[in-house]
Amino acid sequence: MKNKICVHTHRMVVVLAFMLGAVAAGYAAGEGTSSVAKPVSPAVDAAKKSEPAITQKPAISQNVTLDFNDADIRNVLKIISYKSGVNIVTTAEVIGNVTIRLVDVPWEKALEVILSNYGFGFERRGNIIMVAPIDKLTSQKKQEVELAQVQPTQTEVFNLLYIDARDAKKALEPLLSPRGKITMLEMTGQSGWEFGKVAAGSTSDESSALKRIEKESIGRSKIIIVNDIPPVMDKIREVINQIDIVPQQVVIEARIMEVSRDKLRDIGLDWGTSSSGATTSTITAEPIRYNASRVVDKLGGNLLGSQVKPSVFNPKTTTITGKYPFNAGLNLLFQKLNGFQYEIVLHALEEDVHTNTLSAPRIMVLNNQEATMLIGTKYPILEQSITGVGTSAVTTVTLQNYQDIGIQLKVVPQIGINNAINMVVHPVVSSYSDTLGDNAYPIIQIREAETRILLKDGETVAMGGLLKDVRSKSDQGIPFLKDVPFLGVFFRRETTDTEKIDLLIFISARIVKDNEFTPQKIEQLEQALGGDSTDKKKASAKKKAKKKDV
């Protein structure tokens, strides 16, 4: 019985050796993403050994397939190490045989299941995984904590390349030991000057002088100072190397098109008795004669629609008057001066205003940073304050703030996996046509939207629906008569105002690739923006060089 058992054990070891050789050869040849441990024949193994050896980095895949029956746990761990591309170190206590069957599972999960079922644990440090019994790992952790209390600390200054020191400090503080400390080098900058005040009636120049702002401002910093024990410092160096990388950039291109049309039509007929009956609101009775010397009766009346401005009469040209006397459009006056006198005034006006606004801003922005574009006007908002009474009253006018009016676009891009770009978009189109109060506060007409969209690299999204369509109509005239078909136009003044605004926004996002802006590309952009001026500068430089040579 003992001899038979020894032979069986020897055969199992030989089979495991063949299994490891077959798996290693399969990995070296780059086979698949999953591994199946099966025995191979000695002839096949000898044929593979006769082939020339090729040194190649093991292929790393996410999932593994393992099928073992009473196999040494260390050999199983070697296969997982080779498959995952990490280094696995075991202590002397890690011994035993395992029987498992796992099909297409992540190697991390396979490692965790195998070790937990057989009373072992692991600790990962970078690219090295240490496997030991759980009680030994616990004891080692306690020793590390005790060592951290007496271990000397060290200080190191990190000069960050890309990220800000404040952001790095927030990310590194959870990694510190109880004795660790992070200090950020804050660079204090000076503030500028505040806007001066203009006082009406003041003879002193102090009111208009620029005053220095006493408050100090804290600038951005790229330097952090870390003090901690050596194991923590090693971990902090590794984390800084991973987070202090070149940030990605996104090119945002937008096309904002606004089509506006405002059409105003005003037609009216006024008449009245006497030679000025259609141009004045006074009723003058005209005599009705039986013959040249006999007056039977008197009759007077008028139809006036031009003495007041209709409520819907809102021309874009603000100087156009909406009542008599008119200063635009067609005005026909007819007066009958003999016999029964009367006056007729015909007024007709049509205003058609088309406005097409096209804006194509383009800007480059860092990942997760906000980009703001404004094409328009900064309207100053003034504030008045009066001190004193009577002749000693002084009016002080100060600049309260600036109001942005025009086309604005605010975008915050965030690059995700597979080059997907998640963007927060806030387009605003504003304008003003009138002011309010003595301080001339603008009455702003605004069209804006805010949304979150997901784009692929290079895609374009269209935002529409920001449509304004207002149609107003006003009729002034004689009741019933103004509604008579065809003849009603002689007894009314009709005003129609149609305002239509359609806003369409196209936004595209593109991730900037490495080395995209080469010197040749920059030169092409310069020539496209100002090719003539660039050529002139080159020509002038050549002329100067020739003069020096002469």
Structure description:
The protein is α+β, with helices and mostly antiparallel strands and 550 residues long. The protein is 23% helix and 44% strand. The protein has eight helices and 27 strands. The strands form eight sheets. Strands 14, 17, 18, 19, 20, 26 and 27 form a seven-stranded antiparallel sheet that branches. Strands 10, 21, 22, 23, 24 and 25 form a six-stranded antiparallel sheet that branches. The protein has a three-stranded mixed sheet with strand order 2-5-4. Strand 23 (420-436) and strand 24 form a beta hairpin. It is elongated. Mean pLDDT is 77; it is low at 1-61 and 196-208.
Question: Any key phrases for this structure?
Answer:
550 residues, alpha+beta, seven-stranded antiparallel sheet, 8 helices, 44% strand, disordered N terminus
Detail the topology: elements first, then pairings.
Layout: H1 2-28, H2 42-50, E1 63-72, H3 73-84, E2 87-90, E3 97-106, H4 107-117, E4 120-125, E5 128-133, H5 134-150, E6 154-159, H6 165-172, E7 181-184, E8 188-189, E9 193-194, E10 198-200, E11 211-212, E12 217-218, E13 223-228, H7 230-243, E14 249-273, E15 286-291, E16 294-299, E17 302-303, E18 330-336, E19 342-359, E20 362-366, E21 371-387, E22 394-415, E23 420-436, E24 441-448, E25 451-456, E26 460-477, E27 492-511, H8 519-549
Parallel strand pairs: 2-5
Antiparallel strand pairs: 1-3, 4-5, 6-13, 7-13, 8-12, 9-11, 10-22, 14-17, 14-19, 14-20, 14-27, 15-16, 18-19, 21-22, 22-23, 23-24, 23-25, 26-27
Helix pairs in contact: 1-3, 3-4
